Amino acid sequence: MTLKHNKKSITTTIIASLVIGLIMLSSITVLPTINAQVTKDHNYYLQQYIVLHDQLEQTINQTSDMEKQMSDLKALNSPINDVKINQLQQQIDENKSKRQSMINELDHIQDESRALFQVDPATKKKLDDAQAVLAQMYLNRTSATYVGNNPVQEIMANYEYKNLWVSFDPDKTIHSTTGDESHTILVNMKKVSGNIPLSVDYTKIVPVYCTTRTQQCNPLIAGTDVQASGKTFDCSEGYQANDNTGATGFIMAGHCAYKGNTVSQPGPSYPGTRTVGTVTLLCNDVEVTCDFAFVKATASMSTWIFKDGNSFYVMYDKTPQSGQYPGDIVIKSGLHSNIQTGTVTSYDPTTHLTKAQIYTIGGDSGAPIFKDIDGTNEHMYGVTVSASSDSNYGYYYTPDYVKTKLGLQN
């Protein structure tokens, strides 16, 4: 399995204090350093994780091949094979020990990545408070302090860099023919954030969808092609869930369907298409505080997640938002981007969206995002709903939030 890493986003960072109403917007974000020799941001640990995870996958596949060889030799029931069987058993035992060592090292890398995002309580409160105030002003349309229609797409506290990440819609700012108001907005934001740096991004955040195709899956597998009857584009099937009656189905992105739609897997333009369920629950509002649906399945379900066509990940459990941390290294199985690995960077308590620096493109809406346990079993982290226009990062909702909003059993 090849794990691709997302390209590093270059963002404009405000580093100067407010001086006579001007803010400098031309500097590049400088990553924190742990020592003078090596710059260790989350990308540093992500690359270590990818290399080791690939080795773990190779070891798992090698062990599986050797176990099959040993089983075939035992079936022959010939004494001349005993030496080879013993050799294979020794290699299998060594591989299992090596596999556990790799898992332990992956956990260590995970801990190092998480450590980058650790902040003292006073700093965390300062960042969170500033984020909350600005979110009420620029994102919450029902807030008493809402400034009115504006081009701000997202505001998040970034614990790794100890700044506030602000995203502007480029079509309404730097690419607008009627003027760019982001500079004025940033001046006003600095009055709230004070000495907290603002990291500014001008890449459009949009739902991800496209018209790609794939094969029919029996049973249904997360990360594969689905299309609702009321839509003209395909999306990714999400993880398995149960509604409040106990009926089994799966989660998909809300903008990929309408309530009452039948859902096909794969899409109707592809040979082998068939109806696999109906959208019975939907949460998809214009304030972008939810974007997911429950499809009551009429086809056989599984807890599998598409990996490479020959093997699958398995959802071990669902991890709530409280059990997810900035710095967590996660995997996404998307319709068009396939297997991607990235890092959880921040969570917005206003919109309930979690941001991950992970390559995300059209067709990934609904794709499961999860954390690897041992190369096969996975902690489910959420369902992908949107991405930046340059594909550098994506957003997802966590399973506990989806469960609460849709009233699911699990």
Distance between the termini: 30 Å
Largest sheet report: 7 strands, antiparallel
Indicate the structural class: alpha+beta
Q: Globular, elongated, flat, extended or rod-shaped: what is the shape? A: globular
The helix fraction, in percent, is 25-40%
- Strand-and-helix sequence, N→C? EEEHHHEEHEEEEEEEEEEEEEEEEEH
- Helical segment count: 5
Distinctive features:
single chain; 6-stranded antiparallel β-barrel; disordered N terminus; alpha+beta; 22 strands; 3 domains; 410 residues; Thrombin, subunit H; 26% helix
SSE layout:
Blueprint: E1 4-5, E2 12-14, E3 27-28, H1 42-76, H2 82-116, H3 121-138, E4 152-158, E5 163-168, H4 182-193, E6 198-201, E7 205-207, E8 225-228, E9 235-236, E10 240-242, E11 248-253, E12 262-264, E13 275-284, E14 291-297, E15 304-306, E16 312-318, E17 329-334, E18 338-348, E19 353-357, E20 368-372, E21 377-388, E22 394-397, H5 399-406
Parallel strand pairs: 1-18, 5-6, 16-21
Antiparallel strand pairs: 2-3, 2-6, 4-5, 7-21, 8-9, 8-12, 10-11, 11-14, 12-13, 13-14, 15-16, 17-18, 17-20, 18-19, 19-22, 20-21, 21-22
Helix pairs in contact: 1-2
Structure description:
This protein has helices at 42-76, 82-116, 121-138, 182-193, 399-406; strands spanning 4-5, 12-14, 27-28, 152-158, 163-168, 198-201, 205-207, 225-228, 235-236, 240-242, 248-253, 262-264, 275-284, 291-297, 304-306, 312-318, 329-334, 338-348, 353-357, 368-372, 377-388, 394-397. Helix 1 packs antiparallel against helix 2. It is an alpha+beta fold. Mean pLDDT is 88; it is low at 1-36. The protein folds into 3 domains: 4-30 and 119-202, no CATH class; 42-116; 207-406, Trypsin-like serine proteases (Thrombin, subunit H, Beta Barrel).
